[in-house]
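User: Sequence in, structure out. Go.
Assistant: Echoing your sequence, followed by the structure tokens.
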Amino acid sequence: MGKQKMTEMLKGTLEGIVLAVLAARPAYGYEVTARLREEGFADIVEGTVYALLIRIEQRGFVDVEKVPSEKGPPRKVYSLNARGRDELEDFWSTWSFLSERIEQLRTEHTEPSVRADGTERTEPSGRADGSARTEPTEPTEQGDN
């Protein structure tokens, strides 16, 4: 996947990803970036993470504690609070809904038209919930009897 595509897709999910990192344990800005990189998000820019931390602080999802640093000014350590945990729960719920629908689309449109036994597939692809896909119907006029 191209770097630009990945960046665009991350924009909508990065807040939830950072909340998930902070749910594991409190962290300061650079530590959040380091953890993201450890998880495979190598192209995450520190400035993006810091801007996001400020935003989630303003939205009341984290508590902030200033901790003295040996090398300069105090560090802001971010910890997820109850409101942040609720937001993270909403994120995972939305993520599950979207990822299920995306996976359904992917599998429906990549299913072969021929079965493994060589016979042609004639029934519509099934949905994740086991129901068959149906075509939309035209609305009928009522009261014309």
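User: And one key feature?
Assistant: Confidence is low (pLDDT under 50) at residues 124-145.
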